[in-house]
Automatic annotation (TrEMBL):
Gene giving rise to this polypeptide: sinR
Transmembrane segments: none
InterPro entries, per the entry: Cro/C1-type_HTH, Lambda_DNA-bd_dom_sf, RmlC-like_jellyroll, RmlC_Cupin_sf, TransReg_Diox_bact_type
The protein, known as: HTH-type transcriptional regulator SinR
Cellular-component GO terms for this entry: cytosol
Length: 207
């Protein structure tokens, strides 16, 4: 029963329109440029504050590069804003005594070279945690340019498929459906799928 229930999101992730991804990249880029202008920072100064290269920041601002969660987290921390500030598309923010409901199809969809992320509860800013549903399209550690290494902690629950957790310190761990893990992101990790289909995971990032 549960395996059948997770399939609709897989279909949505696979069939999502490239236009949606382009729109999100443009939105993140515009917000980044707006924040940098408010600070009066050059690209080099922003790079020093965020630990993201000036060339990468420039490409993100122009909508030419889809930033990973690690890059987004570094940018948000460097500018002193919440991660959701870079991703919020609704223009709304829920105040004190907050509660949000996410229905199928809700959230902010983002594709990178290694995964497709669906950021949930995007209307709530200044969250202590960020829930994300991800389809992992990477098939080996070589699909990543670098180790995902940034501040925070992560809880991962595998909904379907087989997820391989590769890290700088430990041997690779294979996680099947309904397995889970919790780790410090500063550990340096890479996710990739080992089964016939991309792994589908629900995870929570807290910093």
């Amino acid at each position: 029963m549960y395996r059948q229930e997770v399939e609709p999101l897989r279909t949505m992730l696979v069939q999502s329109s490239p236009r949606d991804d382009a729109s999100l990249d443009q939105m993140v880029g515009s917000k980044l440029k707006e924040l940098r202008t408010e600070k009066g920072w050059s690209l080099m100064e922003a790079s020093q504050e965020t630990s993201v290269s000036a060339s990468a920041l420039s490409r993100i601002e122009r909508g030419e590069l889809s930033p990973t969660l690690g890059s987004l987290s570094k940018i948000a921390r460097g500018f002193g804003v919440d991660l959701t500030t870079l991703l919020n598309t609704s223009g709304q923010e829920i105040a004190k005594f907050r509660r949000a409901i996410s229905r199928e199809g809700d959230g902010v969809l983002q594709k990178t070279g290694t995964c497709t992320n669906l950021f949930l509860m995007d209307e709530i800013r200044n969250k202590k945690m960020q829930p994300i549903r991800t389809q992992v399209t990477a098939r080996s550690p070589a699909d990543y340019r670098e180790w995902e290494n940034y501040e925070g902690e992560v809880f991962v629950f595998v909904l379907s498929g087989t997820l391989v957790l590769s890290s700088e310190l430990y041997e690779d761990v294979y996680l099947d459906a309904f397995d889970s893990t919790y780790y410090d992101v500063s550990l340096g990790v890479k996710w990739y799928s080992a089964g016939k289909k991309p792994a589908d995971v629900l995870w929570i990032y807290a910093r």
